[in-house]
Amino acid sequence: MEGDSVTLNNRLTEILSGDEFLWWFSYTKITFIAIIDKPTDIFDVYDDVLDGRFRDRLKLDNQTGSLTITNITMKHAGDYEQMTKKLTAIFSLTVYARLPVPVISSNSSNCSSSSSSYCSLVCSVVNVVNVTLSWYKGNSLLSSISASDLSISLSLPLEVEYQDKNSYSCVLNNPISNQTQHLDISQLCHTCSDSVHCCGSTEAVIRLVLSALVGVATVILLVYDIRSRRAEQDQAHIHTPGI
Protein backbone atom coordinates (compact mmCIF):
# COMPACT_ATOMS: atom_id res chain seq x y z
CA MET A 1 0.00 0.00 0.00
CA GLU A 2 1.18 3.54 -0.69
CA GLY A 3 3.35 4.90 2.12
CA ASP A 4 4.48 1.46 3.32
CA SER A 5 7.90 -0.15 3.02
CA VAL A 6 8.62 -3.40 1.20
CA THR A 7 11.67 -5.66 1.32
CA LEU A 8 12.64 -7.81 -1.69
CA ASN A 9 14.51 -10.82 -0.35
CA ASN A 10 15.63 -14.04 -2.07
CA ARG A 11 16.03 -15.69 1.36
CA LEU A 12 19.82 -15.71 1.34
CA THR A 13 21.22 -15.66 4.86
CA GLU A 14 24.57 -14.10 3.97
CA ILE A 15 26.67 -12.77 1.12
CA LEU A 16 29.72 -14.90 0.33
CA SER A 17 33.14 -13.40 -0.28
CA GLY A 18 32.98 -13.71 -4.08
CA ASP A 19 29.34 -12.71 -4.57
CA GLU A 20 28.13 -9.91 -6.79
CA PHE A 21 24.52 -8.66 -6.80
CA LEU A 22 22.87 -6.42 -9.38
CA TRP A 23 19.37 -4.98 -8.88
CA TRP A 24 17.26 -3.87 -11.86
CA PHE A 25 13.83 -2.24 -12.05
CA SER A 26 11.63 -2.95 -15.06
CA TYR A 27 8.44 -1.09 -15.89
CA THR A 28 8.52 0.72 -19.21
CA LYS A 29 12.25 0.10 -19.47
CA ILE A 30 14.97 -1.75 -17.54
CA THR A 31 16.90 0.50 -15.15
CA PHE A 32 19.91 -0.32 -12.98
CA ILE A 33 19.23 0.72 -9.35
CA ALA A 34 21.71 -1.06 -7.01
CA ILE A 35 24.92 -3.10 -6.84
CA ILE A 36 26.72 -5.22 -4.28
CA ASP A 37 30.25 -6.31 -5.16
CA LYS A 38 31.69 -8.20 -2.23
CA PRO A 39 35.28 -8.61 -3.59
CA THR A 40 35.68 -4.83 -4.01
CA ASP A 41 33.46 -3.99 -1.03
CA ILE A 42 31.05 -1.90 -3.14
CA PHE A 43 27.52 -1.36 -1.81
CA ASP A 44 25.76 1.34 -3.81
CA VAL A 45 22.24 2.40 -4.77
CA TYR A 46 21.36 4.58 -7.76
CA ASP A 47 18.27 6.38 -6.57
CA ASP A 48 18.35 9.40 -8.90
CA VAL A 49 17.24 7.40 -11.94
CA LEU A 50 13.77 7.65 -13.50
CA ASP A 51 13.06 11.25 -12.46
CA GLY A 52 14.21 10.55 -8.90
CA ARG A 53 11.30 8.30 -7.96
CA PHE A 54 13.66 6.18 -5.81
CA ARG A 55 15.49 9.11 -4.20
CA ASP A 56 16.17 8.43 -0.48
CA ARG A 57 13.99 5.32 -0.68
CA LEU A 58 16.45 2.48 -1.44
CA LYS A 59 18.27 0.55 1.29
CA LEU A 60 20.61 -2.41 0.74
CA ASP A 61 21.18 -5.10 3.34
CA ASN A 62 24.94 -5.71 3.42
CA GLN A 63 24.46 -9.14 4.99
CA THR A 64 21.80 -10.72 2.75
CA GLY A 65 21.72 -8.55 -0.37
CA SER A 66 18.01 -7.80 0.03
CA LEU A 67 16.62 -4.47 -1.19
CA THR A 68 14.15 -2.36 0.81
CA ILE A 69 12.03 0.38 -0.76
CA THR A 70 10.55 2.83 1.73
CA ASN A 71 7.51 5.11 1.40
CA ILE A 72 6.39 3.43 -1.80
CA THR A 73 4.07 5.05 -4.34
CA MET A 74 2.23 3.85 -7.43
CA LYS A 75 5.34 4.72 -9.47
CA HIS A 76 7.27 1.92 -7.76
CA ALA A 77 5.00 -0.83 -9.08
CA GLY A 78 6.70 -3.17 -11.54
CA ASP A 79 9.23 -6.00 -11.75
CA TYR A 80 12.48 -6.04 -9.77
CA GLU A 81 15.27 -8.37 -10.85
CA GLN A 82 18.16 -9.49 -8.68
CA MET A 83 21.03 -10.97 -10.68
CA THR A 84 23.98 -12.91 -9.29
CA LYS A 85 26.57 -15.19 -10.85
CA LYS A 86 24.52 -18.23 -9.90
CA LEU A 87 20.87 -17.20 -10.11
CA THR A 88 18.32 -14.58 -11.11
CA ALA A 89 15.29 -13.75 -8.96
CA ILE A 90 12.34 -11.67 -10.19
CA PHE A 91 9.94 -9.89 -7.82
CA SER A 92 6.66 -8.42 -9.08
CA LEU A 93 5.52 -5.49 -6.94
CA THR A 94 1.92 -4.26 -7.00
CA VAL A 95 1.15 -1.05 -5.12
CA TYR A 96 -2.37 -0.11 -4.02
CA ALA A 97 -3.48 3.42 -3.21
CA ARG A 98 -5.00 4.17 0.19
CA LEU A 99 -8.76 3.96 -0.13
CA PRO A 100 -11.09 6.92 0.45
CA VAL A 101 -14.27 6.51 2.49
CA PRO A 102 -17.31 6.16 0.18
CA VAL A 103 -19.84 9.01 0.20
CA ILE A 104 -23.57 8.26 0.40
CA SER A 105 -25.98 10.94 -0.81
CA SER A 106 -29.66 11.20 -1.63
CA ASN A 107 -30.50 11.09 -5.31
CA SER A 108 -34.10 12.18 -4.68
CA SER A 109 -35.64 15.66 -4.63
CA ASN A 110 -35.83 17.63 -1.38
CA CYS A 111 -38.70 15.44 -0.21
CA SER A 112 -40.89 12.65 -1.51
CA SER A 113 -44.66 12.71 -1.78
CA SER A 114 -46.68 10.33 0.33
CA SER A 115 -47.46 8.30 -2.81
CA SER A 116 -43.78 7.31 -3.14
CA SER A 117 -42.48 4.82 -0.59
CA TYR A 118 -38.89 4.60 -1.86
CA CYS A 119 -35.85 6.81 -1.35
CA SER A 120 -33.19 6.94 -4.09
CA LEU A 121 -29.57 6.94 -2.88
CA VAL A 122 -26.16 6.80 -4.51
CA CYS A 123 -22.78 5.76 -3.13
CA SER A 124 -19.76 7.27 -4.88
CA VAL A 125 -15.96 7.51 -4.84
CA VAL A 126 -13.53 9.46 -7.03
CA ASN A 127 -10.08 8.77 -8.48
CA VAL A 128 -9.84 5.08 -7.63
CA VAL A 129 -7.91 2.24 -9.27
CA ASN A 130 -8.39 -1.55 -9.10
CA VAL A 131 -11.25 -1.42 -6.60
CA THR A 132 -14.79 -2.72 -6.14
CA LEU A 133 -17.68 -0.62 -4.80
CA SER A 134 -20.55 -2.60 -3.24
CA TRP A 135 -23.88 -2.18 -1.45
CA TYR A 136 -24.63 -4.58 1.41
CA LYS A 137 -27.84 -5.28 3.29
CA GLY A 138 -26.54 -6.67 6.54
CA ASN A 139 -23.96 -9.21 5.35
CA SER A 140 -25.69 -9.89 2.03
CA LEU A 141 -24.28 -8.40 -1.17
CA LEU A 142 -26.90 -6.41 -3.11
CA SER A 143 -24.87 -4.96 -6.01
CA SER A 144 -21.32 -4.05 -6.98
CA ILE A 145 -19.24 -2.31 -9.62
CA SER A 146 -15.49 -2.50 -10.29
CA ALA A 147 -12.80 -0.18 -11.63
CA SER A 148 -9.94 -1.33 -13.85
CA ASP A 149 -6.34 -0.15 -13.72
CA LEU A 150 -7.42 3.32 -14.89
CA SER A 151 -8.17 6.05 -12.34
CA ILE A 152 -11.91 6.74 -12.55
CA SER A 153 -14.93 7.67 -10.44
CA LEU A 154 -17.56 5.12 -9.42
CA SER A 155 -21.23 5.53 -8.47
CA LEU A 156 -23.64 2.83 -7.34
CA PRO A 157 -27.39 3.54 -6.85
CA LEU A 158 -29.73 2.03 -4.27
CA GLU A 159 -33.45 2.37 -3.48
CA VAL A 160 -34.78 1.75 0.02
CA GLU A 161 -38.15 2.19 1.68
CA TYR A 162 -38.50 5.18 3.99
CA GLN A 163 -39.55 2.95 6.87
CA ASP A 164 -36.87 0.32 6.21
CA LYS A 165 -35.19 -0.74 9.47
CA ASN A 166 -32.51 -2.94 7.90
CA SER A 167 -28.80 -2.16 8.09
CA TYR A 168 -27.23 -0.97 4.82
CA SER A 169 -23.59 -0.17 4.09
CA CYS A 170 -21.47 0.84 1.12
CA VAL A 171 -18.05 -0.82 0.95
CA LEU A 172 -15.02 0.10 -1.16
CA ASN A 173 -12.33 -2.57 -1.28
CA ASN A 174 -9.21 -3.75 -3.06
CA PRO A 175 -7.30 -7.01 -2.45
CA ILE A 176 -5.61 -5.73 0.72
CA SER A 177 -7.95 -3.22 2.41
CA ASN A 178 -11.46 -1.77 2.55
CA GLN A 179 -13.43 1.30 3.64
CA THR A 180 -17.06 1.19 4.80
CA GLN A 181 -19.75 3.86 5.03
CA HIS A 182 -22.96 2.96 6.89
CA LEU A 183 -26.31 4.30 5.70
CA ASP A 184 -28.46 6.41 8.02
CA ILE A 185 -31.87 6.42 6.31
CA SER A 186 -33.37 8.94 8.74
CA GLN A 187 -30.71 11.52 7.84
CA LEU A 188 -30.87 11.21 4.05
CA CYS A 189 -34.48 10.24 3.31
CA HIS A 190 -37.37 12.58 4.21
CA THR A 191 -41.02 12.61 3.19
CA CYS A 192 -42.77 15.87 2.36
CA SER A 193 -44.83 15.60 5.54
CA ASP A 194 -41.58 15.60 7.54
CA SER A 195 -40.40 18.66 5.64
CA VAL A 196 -43.70 20.49 6.17
CA HIS A 197 -43.58 19.73 9.87
CA CYS A 198 -40.02 20.94 10.06
CA CYS A 199 -40.67 24.05 8.00
CA GLY A 200 -43.89 24.79 9.92
CA SER A 201 -42.01 24.85 13.20
CA THR A 202 -39.31 27.06 11.72
CA GLU A 203 -41.91 29.44 10.29
CA ALA A 204 -43.59 29.77 13.69
CA VAL A 205 -40.28 30.72 15.30
CA ILE A 206 -39.59 33.30 12.58
CA ARG A 207 -43.05 34.85 13.04
CA LEU A 208 -42.53 35.04 16.79
CA VAL A 209 -39.18 36.80 16.36
CA LEU A 210 -40.64 39.26 13.83
CA SER A 211 -43.55 40.03 16.15
CA ALA A 212 -41.14 40.76 18.98
CA LEU A 213 -39.08 43.07 16.76
CA VAL A 214 -42.19 44.96 15.64
CA GLY A 215 -43.24 45.36 19.28
CA VAL A 216 -39.85 46.74 20.27
CA ALA A 217 -39.87 49.15 17.32
CA THR A 218 -43.36 50.37 18.28
CA VAL A 219 -42.27 51.09 21.85
CA ILE A 220 -39.20 52.99 20.64
CA LEU A 221 -41.31 55.13 18.29
CA LEU A 222 -43.84 55.84 21.05
CA VAL A 223 -41.14 56.95 23.48
CA TYR A 224 -39.56 59.13 20.80
CA ASP A 225 -42.94 60.74 20.01
CA ILE A 226 -43.64 61.52 23.69
CA ARG A 227 -40.20 63.07 24.17
CA SER A 228 -40.58 65.13 20.99
CA ARG A 229 -43.92 66.54 22.14
CA ARG A 230 -42.53 67.42 25.57
CA ALA A 231 -39.61 69.19 23.95
CA GLU A 232 -41.97 71.22 21.74
CA GLN A 233 -44.09 72.19 24.75
CA ASP A 234 -40.99 73.31 26.68
CA GLN A 235 -39.82 75.40 23.74
CA ALA A 236 -43.26 77.02 23.43
CA HIS A 237 -43.30 77.84 27.15
CA ILE A 238 -39.88 79.49 26.97
CA HIS A 239 -40.81 81.78 24.05
CA THR A 240 -44.26 82.80 25.35
CA PRO A 241 -44.12 86.47 26.65
CA GLY A 242 -45.29 87.04 30.18
CA ILE A 243 -48.73 88.67 30.78
Automatic annotation (TrEMBL):
Membrane-traversing stretches: 204-224
Statement: the UniProt record of this protein carries the keyword Transmembrane helix: yes
SUPFAM superfamilies on file: Immunoglobulin
Domain spans labelled Ig-like: 102-186
Keywords: Membrane, Transmembrane, Transmembrane helix
Keyword Transmembrane helix appears in the UniProt entry: yes
InterPro entries (UniProt xref): Ig-like_dom (IPR007110), Ig-like_dom_sf (IPR036179), Ig-like_fold (IPR013783)
Signal peptide positions on this chain: none
Protein name: Ig-like domain-containing protein
UniProt lineage: Eukaryota, Metazoa, Chordata, Craniata, Vertebrata
